[in-house]
Amino acid sequence: xxxxxxxxxxxxxxxxxxxxxxxxxxxxxxxxxxxxxxxxxxxxxxxxxxxxxxxxxxxxxxxxxxxxxxxxxxxxxxxxxxxxxxxxxxxxxxxxxxxxxxxxxxxxxxxxxxxxxxxxxxxxxxxxxxxxxxxxxxxxxxxxxxxxxxxxxxxxxxxxxxxxxxxxxxxxxxxxxxxxxxxxxxxxxxxxxxxxxxxxxxxxxxxxxxxxxxxxxxxxxxxxxxxxxxxxxxxxxxxxxxxxxxxxxxxxxxxxxxxxxxxxxxxx
Length: 268
Hints:
- The protein is of the alpha/beta class.
- It has helices spanning 2-10, 12-29, 58-70, 91-106, 126-134, 158-167, 188-195, 213-224, 238-247, 251-264, and strands spanning 41-45, 75-78, 81-82, 115-118, 121-123, 144-148, 171-175, 199-203, 230-232.
- The protein has two domains: 1-29; 39-267, TIM Barrel (Alpha-Beta Barrel).
- 44% of the residues lie in helices and 13% in strands.
- Strand 6, helix 6 (158-167) and strand 7 form a beta-alpha-beta unit.
- Helix 1 (2-10) packs across helix 2 (12-29).
- It starts with a helix and ends with a helix.
């Protein structure tokens, strides 16, 4: 009825144009590319193949990159885990794996606009202390390094480690602070970490309920208190990919995230 009413009131040609404009407007409104500039860089991803719990093969890496490309994300820092007794990836292994994937990307026609470089996500364990002493670390950019800790229990000497990182000339970016369960009941610790010199990197999918309600609420609290410095996908697999895509359709969340996405550009 509404369609025929429109034709009677505005005429067939005008009605067709109105419908076309409506679909065009909706397509623009739901296009994720408007949130990611050409300078945006995803500073946390596990897309290097066969090196940790991320991409399992080169084909898997290319599939993930292709999906991200369609969202408008072109630049990536590959940050495989470096964890003692689990993924003891050396600087040499990470760089070699990244170069191999980079060469494959350059030979893949529909991915030639993608740019990757290597860094790492360092667990703040005894092995990290050893690497820090030797300054054998791969930064996100310049002297900024991505670090993480146990979700359940932070190191007893956490603030000493943070201080030592800075003594050695590095700036710590704490990966996904919203995911550390032990801080959900003591939000003041976040302020202490910031005061100690930590930068914070939010996982984009924490703005969904992928990790649960408490992580989601912590992410919103950190954003609302202007504590988040950068954002990352922490992309491991297609489930993450699907969640990231669904997030880009949430204008309310993406608008809150937009200033942080702009901050990422300085790390390109």
